[in-house]
Specification:
The chain is mostly helical and 302 residues long. It has one domain: Na+/H+ antiporter like fold. Helix 7 runs antiparallel to helix 8 and helix 7 packs antiparallel against helix 14. The longest helix is centred in the middle third of the chain and has 29 residues. The radius of gyration is 19 Å and the shape is globular. The chain starts with a helix and ends with a helix.
Length: 302
């Protein structure tokens, strides 16, 4: 039973979030503390001198930005809403929790931390510049949009890293203790995933069109379902292929494939038509199914 729970922690977390979404939303207030703590535990394994930009990071960034724009214009002829939703699933930056899964898979935590910082800055510039061009009805200025994105991501990304470096410098014994229990971060992330899944389900049920309207636009729903699954598989595959050339397949795969879906849903509903946020809502399921498979396979190898 313990082995089963370890191997399938992420699907179990998602199922709990879906079933108990009415009550889990009340736990949303603890999400920032959970994310801060789990990143602190993970970043204790990273030293500031380990943060080095590699050529593979720029390849990943090119796939993320250019690929998102290309996919939008490829799908636009089918349906604009589908094109926007799937595009958000690609241009969305790497999840802050990606370092936790990378650590669990014995990948390069320093590499994915470097890329996460890089892509979040670039996306904060590209999104406010590109989204108004494809959806002028949003009505948000560049600097307002830039600040909104930065303020949502960087406090929970930068502060844990700074605290981890301060602990290493001034309290090495405490730092060593936190490093020894870094696996706890994974289970804290599972709790955060349950909360995120509950919030997503509650948002969809309360804020989205009625069942009759969904039936009338079934081709849009199907398009986003298939599109989000396709780009999820594509990004993990392409990321691993890029990283394989530098011996960094795990970190590169997670860098490109594991997205900050909560931020993606917010970006879609804020800058674009709210219905487009269905696509990143579906992406959260696909990426965690794949992460579950990777964790199971890693455990199976061991």
């Amino acid at each position: 039973m313990i082995r089963f729970l370890k191997n399938w922690t992420l699907p179990i977390s998602m199922i709990i979030g879906v079933i108990f979404y009415k009550w889990i939303g009340a736990l949303a207030v603890i999400s920032p503390a959970l994310i801060f703590t789990m990143l602190l535990l993970t970043f204790c394994k990273v030293r500031i001198e380990d943060l080095r930009l590699r050529m593979s990071h720029f390849y990943l960034l090119a796939v993320e930005i250019i690929g998102a724009i290309a996919i939008y214009y490829m799908l636009k002829s089918y349906n604009t809403i589908v094109a926007q939703g799937v595009m958000v699933c690609v241009i969305c930056p790497t999840a802050t929790a990606a370092a936790i899964v990378t650590n669990k898979l014995h990948g390069n935590v320093a590499s994915i931390t470097t890329y996460t910082l890089l892509c979040n800055v670039v996306v904060a510039v590209v999104v406010p510049a590109f989204f108004p061009a494809i959806y002028p009805q949003g009505g948000m200025t560049f600097w307002v949009a830039f600040w909104h994105i930065i303020s949502k991501v960087f406090p929970l990304l930068i502060f844990p890293f700074i605290v981890a470096q301060l602990l290493l410098r001034f309290t090495p014994k405490l730092h060593a203790k936190l490093t020894s229990i870094s696996d706890l971060a994974f289970y804290m992330w599972a709790i955060a995933l349950t909360i995120a899944m509950g919030i997503v389900v509650k948002t969809f049920i309360t804020d989205y069109p009625s069942f009759d309207e969904i039936q009338a636009n079934w081709h849009v729903i199907i398009g986003m379902l298939i599109g989000s699954m396709a780009v999820c598989a594509m990004q993990f595959f392409v990321g691993k292929r890029i990283g394989r050339n530098t011996g960094d397949a795990i970190a590169s795969g997670q860098s490109l494939g594991q997205k900050n879906t909560v931020l993606a849903i917010w970006m879609a509903s804020t800058f674009l038509s709210p219905v487009t946020s269905l696509a990143p809502g579906m992406y959260i399921v696909w990426q965690n199914i794949f992460n579950s498979y990777q964790l199971w396979y890693e455990q199976h190898k061991q």
